[in-house]
Amino acid sequence: MGSIVLKSLSVLLGIFFLFVGTLKMSPVISKELHKDLRKDYVKYAKVFPLSKMIDFKVPAKWYRRAVGGTEVLSGVCLAFVPYRNVKQGANITLLMSHLLAVYTHYAAKDKFERMAPALVFLFMLAGRLVIDYQLRRKELAELLNLKLKNKNRKKITFPKLSSFLLKFLHINYCKDLF
């Protein structure tokens, strides 16, 4: 991760999702917000996409906890884990989670004002993904150029002293024979 933009975006998004995920899982931060989220997830569990396909009703409590746990885990990975691939996995997980959130808001017929934060963070996560992709391409191009420069460079090797002396002696003494 070479960009200050990518680092700061990762840390800020990670801390945000750590906060929001904790809100969804427990009332430690705010009892009122947690209570509102519990009411909202009752509505969202009814429009969960797989519930119609597999004929399984997802309990609102477990749906809320699963989304919150995913956000907490991915937020910790984005903010504090130094490995690029782990951050990418967390970013893609959160991106899919927010696609689900946008669908859920739409299916539950929420107003745009309720859907807007999910859309904003969806676009921020997509932007982070694009920035990381561009940095990876740039780093790979620089690495490839460095390898090509080293490959095209002619190696200047100096002959060993023994082979130099043999050639010198051979040339000088062979002249005398002819």
UniProtKB/TrEMBL annotation:
<dbReference type="GO" id="GO:2000010">
    <property type="term" value="P:positive regulation of protein localization to cell surface"/>
</dbReference>
<dbReference type="GO" id="GO:0051131">
    <property type="term" value="P:chaperone-mediated protein complex assembly"/>
</dbReference>
<dbReference type="GO" id="GO:0005789">
    <property type="term" value="C:endoplasmic reticulum membrane"/>
</dbReference>
<keyword id="KW-0576">Peroxisome</keyword>
<keyword id="KW-0143">Chaperone</keyword>
<feature type="transmembrane region" description="Helical">
    <location>
        <begin position="114"/>
        <end position="131"/>
    </location>
</feature>
<keyword id="KW-1133">Transmembrane helix</keyword>
<keyword id="KW-0256">Endoplasmic reticulum</keyword>
<keyword id="KW-0472">Membrane</keyword>
<dbReference type="InterPro" id="IPR040399">
    <property type="entry name" value="TMEM35A/B"/>
</dbReference>
<dbReference type="GO" id="GO:0031410">
    <property type="term" value="C:cytoplasmic vesicle"/>
</dbReference>
<dbReference type="GO" id="GO:0005778">
    <property type="term" value="C:peroxisomal membrane"/>
</dbReference>
<keyword id="KW-0812">Transmembrane</keyword>
<protein>
    <recommendedName>
        <fullName>Novel acetylcholine receptor chaperone</fullName>
    </recommendedName>
</protein>
<comment type="similarity">
    <text>Belongs to the DoxX family.</text>
</comment>
<keyword id="KW-0968">Cytoplasmic vesicle</keyword>
